[in-house]
Task: inverse folding
């Protein structure tokens, strides 16, 4: 019998003994890890154990928090940022019902909004250019009728508006 098998049997027997003293409905988990060697990690858990409850317990009682540095949270945030970026590009959607789908949809909506605003900005610039062109033409006509030195207030204001729009 290997050392690992003997350990599992001993740990299991100990967990059975400990579980006899737990309150009704309590679940038991044993986690053994070796830093930097995940292949040596061991997780023994009760039947029906909810891993989210274990994480919640560690958060409440074990010092696990959203603050602080750990690889899992960093990787999780990378996945969220990637989902937002892919959604913004309307590219590589996650499978339907996947937890990243909501972040992908947020990115997609942001991308659509940005495209819509860019189209409106382009249209506004085109309209500005057309109005500027019409104003330059109108000023040219006015100056042929009434030279600049003899102009009225409208002519001066139109010339100033054209200069400002070109700046």
Result:
């Amino acid at each position: 019998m290997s050392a690992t098998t003997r350990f599992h049997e001993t740990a299991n027997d100990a967990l059975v003994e400990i579980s006899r003293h737990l309150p009704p409905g309590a679940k038991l988990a044993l986690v053994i890890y070796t830093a930097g060697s995940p292949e040596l990690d061991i997780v023994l858990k009760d039947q029906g154990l909810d891993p989210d409850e274990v994480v919640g317990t560690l958060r409440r009682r074990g010092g696990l928090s959203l603050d602080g540095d750990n690889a899992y949270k960093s990787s999780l945030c990378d996945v969220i940022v990637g989902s937002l970026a892919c959604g913004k590009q309307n590219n590589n959607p996650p499978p339907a019902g996947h937890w990243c789908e909501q972040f992908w949809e947020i990115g997609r909506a942001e991308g659509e909004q940005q495209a819509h605003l860019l189209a409106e900005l382009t249209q506004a610039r085109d309209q500005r250019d057309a109005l500027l062109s019409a104003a330059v033409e109108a000023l040219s006509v006015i100056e042929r009728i009434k030279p600049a030195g003899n102009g009225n207030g409208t002519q001066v204001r139109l010339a100033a508006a054209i200069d400002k729009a070109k700046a």
